[in-house]
Amino acid sequence: MILRPFRRSPRTDSIAALYGAIVAQARSPTFYVEFGVPDTMEGRFDLIVLHLVLVLRRLGGAGERGAAFGQRLFDAFCRDLDGNLREMGVGDLAVPKRMRRFGEAFYGRQAAYVAALGVDDLQDFEKALARNILQAEDTDYRAARLAHYARAAVRQLGTQDDADLFSGVTDFPNPEAFADARA
User: Fold this and answer.
1) What is the pLDDT of residue 140?
2) 30, 176 in Cβ contact below 8 A?
3) Residue 11 has what pLDDT?
């Protein structure tokens, strides 16, 4: 009984597995080599945010349980950011300021991506990706390919069973399949 608070629950393991899958997908070299995402701290952050937004959007369609699970997933993302900042040597007084900026960036990107995914016009999503991830204002073939990949990820996440997601299992499309595609 005394060690119970220190044991990981299956729910915690599921969150860790799902968050790990998001981070692993965002670290795929194809995004940096073929899609032109800057291989910087900001570029990596932006790809994690994109994948997290896609998964959170999917979980939002799974009712109250999905919303609660999504909140715990977002909390894991915040803990990871906080831990990474501290590991990089950011001081205790600066961490909250940086986390606030990360939070503002996340919510801004989330609003832009969800709104753009909700309309049929592909250009809005491409522009949001070009501005936020590719760090360019012009929408070029790289943004179109990334948008094509992300829309495929939305479709693929939509076919996944709620129980799989709640158990920490997800399957993203292979980004290499979109590296040469023209959307």
Assistant:
1) 78
2) yes
3) 62
d(CA 16, CA 167): 10
Q: Residue 131: which residues within 8 A CB-CB, separation 6 or more?
A: 137
Is 75 within a domain? yes
Query: Is the residue at 126 inside a domain?
Result: no
What does 28-87 look like in DSSP terms, one character per residue? -HHHHHTS----SHHHHHHHHHHHHHHHHHHHHTTHHHHHHHHHHHHHHHHHHHHHHHHH
Using alpha carbons, select from 28, 37, 26 the residue that is nearest to residue 142: 37
**DSSP for 2-34, written as a single string:** TTGGGSPPHHHHHHHHHHHHHHHHHT-HHHHHT
Structural domain contains residue 182: no
Owning domain of residue 156? 9-120+148-174
- Each residue of 109-157: pLDDT tens digit? 999 999 999 888 888 898 889 988 987 665 578 888 999 999 999 999 9
CA distance 114 to 36: 22
Q: Please give the tally of structural domains in the chain.
A: 1
CA-closest candidate to residue 50, choices 181, 140, 146: 146
pTM: 0.87
Q: Residue 159 domain-assigned?
A: yes
Residue 119's pLDDT is 85
